[in-house]
Amino acid sequence: MTEDKNPEVGAVVIGRNEGDRLKLCLSSVIAQIETVVYVDSGSHDGSPEYAATLGVEIVDLDMSIPFSAGRARNEGFNRLLQLGKKLEFVQFIDGDCELNGNWITYAKQFLTKQSSYAIVSGLLEERNPEKSIYNELCNIEWKRPEGDALSCGGIFLARITAISSVNGFSSEMIAGEEPELCFRLRQKNWKIYNSGINMALHDANMLYFKQWWKRSVRSGYAYTHRYFIHTYNNDEYLKKATIRIWFWTIILPFFAFLLSIMISPLFMITLLAYLVQLIRSYRHTLRFTRNKRTSFLYSFFNALGKWPQLIGQITFIYKRLKNQQKSIIEYK
Fold it and tell me: Is 237's pLDDT higher than 70?
């Protein structure tokens, strides 16, 4: 065991059929962390076997039980604790990401000094944003303002005692498990911090409109699921996000058409609110992208995304009423 391997830190990597991306991921992780658990969810590309050659602890998920990223991370986290190492922090990372070489040192020092923080995350960038519009959109999505945050994405360093205090991730959520975890942490007065430090490269490999649409459906499903779980917990951000989807897709067009029929066609002018919202979003995005084309694309797809998100919300409600089993919505 060497000092540069950060003996106080363990890592949980999750993946399925990531191929060369997993090789990059594990290489970047074991270069900084000695105790690593890889959780595989039914790969048939030799991922578990490759991970085993690196001396990584392997967890093969029982795929007869409904899969979720939250469940995979929980099983990896539990195995990490069972290894009996004296760990204080855990790095969660997906198999399609490559960890920055300086990240663990910085993140560990931050949590060591800032005892009120449960999680620290950093800058995540797309590996190939130029390959498609949808990769480019992801690259913008990853950009978060530096400072205290309400939530984080799936790549972050966390304090083990904090994760244990809320019993880890919600295994039943098919997406959005990280914001849901952060919400429960904040309820226990833990803080979340987003740094301006480069954390990792991500490879979305999202090349087609169909993939983007499914991902947006999954996002809407996750919003509604979290809203259902925390209806009485005063999650104002979540309430606004959920209501916003219904407003732009149903409420506004319904009343515009209804009033135009009942009173005057002039009420159709209220639909210009879409244009106003697009311009506002464009101006906001332009502030940090400094690119007119990129800002317009992001604003346009952000507006368009409300419709697949609505489908995701309706899907959750339908399955809840029918008491149907939830299943993951895959877009890759």
Answer: no
